[in-house]
């Protein structure tokens, strides 16, 4: 994240208040709250600070179906801090993940919105071939970022309305995968989107303790594959990922192999989960892809 990402309004706020900000991102970092009675840092403080600073007209939990976003969605819904959950159906994921998200939201009576990319994954790979790490930004833009843009457009009450987008990103995971991460972020390119990470300071033990204390269910996919499974674009697939899919979700693996045949027929890079021979650069993962990026990919900030 660079200084260019700071909106003019935020800079004026800094000069007017003299508030202390993180030197790397120029965002005011909320004070770390004391741990709550059940052992977790109080996620409410971060969300309430974001609300006071940006006054969002809507608040959404971005629920991929993974462990982190599941605990986050449960916590913020039970605390009355969101209007609905949002699931981005990339069209590439494991069907059981989407089923889990639907069942989870029904169980807790959470309103659920589902968004689909404007161009299908199949159309993208038939035109460009399967992506490697260097093409991840391209896939992220089409499969997820444009869905978020649509969500924000549909729920703004006027051109400058702010929409809060709450993620399950955690510092212990994201710092090694995505570089610098902050609890509240606003980006100059999309100033109406306010990204909030209320579980930023939570550890795996915190997640496990909250899940046990509140009986929060875990998806079968996350338990078996250690990822949400909502997006299988393949850009950051690990070497054995296709084997894991063949073992646990053979229908999903068969769908990928069938698409490989189609892509090969049009002369594009046709091996899912691998990079084209000419690809050399590596792209940073998007903010909604922190559970699938390899640990050696670091970036100055999230998209």
Protein described:
The longest helix is centred in the middle third of the chain and has 20 residues. This protein has a single domain, classed as 3-Layer(aba) Sandwich (Rossmann fold), CATH 3.40.50.620. Helix 10 crosses helix 11. The protein is globular, with a radius of gyration of 19 Å. The chain is built from 11 helices and 6 strands. The protein is of the alpha/beta class. Strands 3-2-1-4-6-5 form a 6-stranded mixed β-sheet, with helices on both faces. It starts with 7 loop residues before the first helix and ends in a 38-residue tail after the last helix. 42% of the residues are buried. The N terminus and C terminus are likely disordered.
- Approximate shape: globular
- Please tell me the total number of domains: 1
Percent of residues in beta strands?
5-15%
Pairing-aware structural class of the strands and helices?
A: alpha/beta
Distance between the termini: 9 Å
Q: Strand order across the biggest sheet?
A: 3-2-1-4-6-5
Instruction: Report on the biggest sheet.
Output: 6 strands, mixed
Specify the helix fraction band.
40-55%
Task: Determine the CATH superfamily.
Answer: HUPs
Strand tally is: 6
What letter string, H or E per element, gives the SSE order? HHEHEHEHHEHEEHHHH
């Amino acid at each position: 994240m660079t200084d260019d990402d700071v909106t003019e309004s935020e800079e004026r706020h800094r000069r007017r208040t003299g508030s202390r900000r993180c030197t790397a991102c120029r965002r005011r970092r909320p004070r770390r709250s004391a741990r709550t009675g059940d052992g977790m840092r109080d996620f409410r403080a971060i969300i309430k600070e974001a609300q006071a600073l940006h006054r969002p007209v809507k608040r959404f939990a971005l629920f991929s179906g993974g462990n982190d976003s599941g605990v986050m969605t449960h916590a913020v819904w039970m605390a009355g801090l969101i209007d609905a959950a949002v699931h981005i159906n990339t069209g590439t994921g494991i069907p059981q993940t989407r089923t889990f998200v639907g069942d989870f939201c029904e169980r807790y009576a959470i309103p659920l919105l589902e968004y689909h990319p404007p161009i299908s994954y199949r159309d993208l790979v038939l035109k460009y071939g399967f992506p490697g790490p260097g093409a991840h930004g391209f896939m992220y833009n089409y499969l997820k970022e444009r869905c978020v843009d649509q969500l924000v457009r549909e729920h703004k009450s006027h051109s400058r309305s702010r929409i809060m987008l709450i993620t399950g990103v955690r510092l212990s995971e994201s710092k090694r995968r995505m570089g610098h991460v902050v609890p509240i972020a606003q980006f100059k390119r999309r100033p109406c989107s306010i990204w909030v990470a209320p579980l930023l300071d939570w550890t795996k033990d915190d997640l496990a303790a909250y899940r046990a204390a509140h009986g929060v269910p875990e998806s079968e996919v996350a338990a078996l594959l250690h990822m949400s499974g909502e997006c299988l674009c393949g850009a950051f697939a690990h070497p054995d990922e296709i084997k894991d899919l063949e073992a646990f979700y053979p229908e999903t693996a068969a769908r990928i192999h069938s698409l490989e045949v189609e892509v090969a027929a049009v002369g594009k890079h046709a091996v899912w989960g691998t990079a084209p021979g000419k690809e050399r650069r590596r792209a940073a993962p998007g903010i909604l892809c922190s559970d699938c990026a390899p640990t050696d990919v670091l970036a100055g900030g999230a998209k």
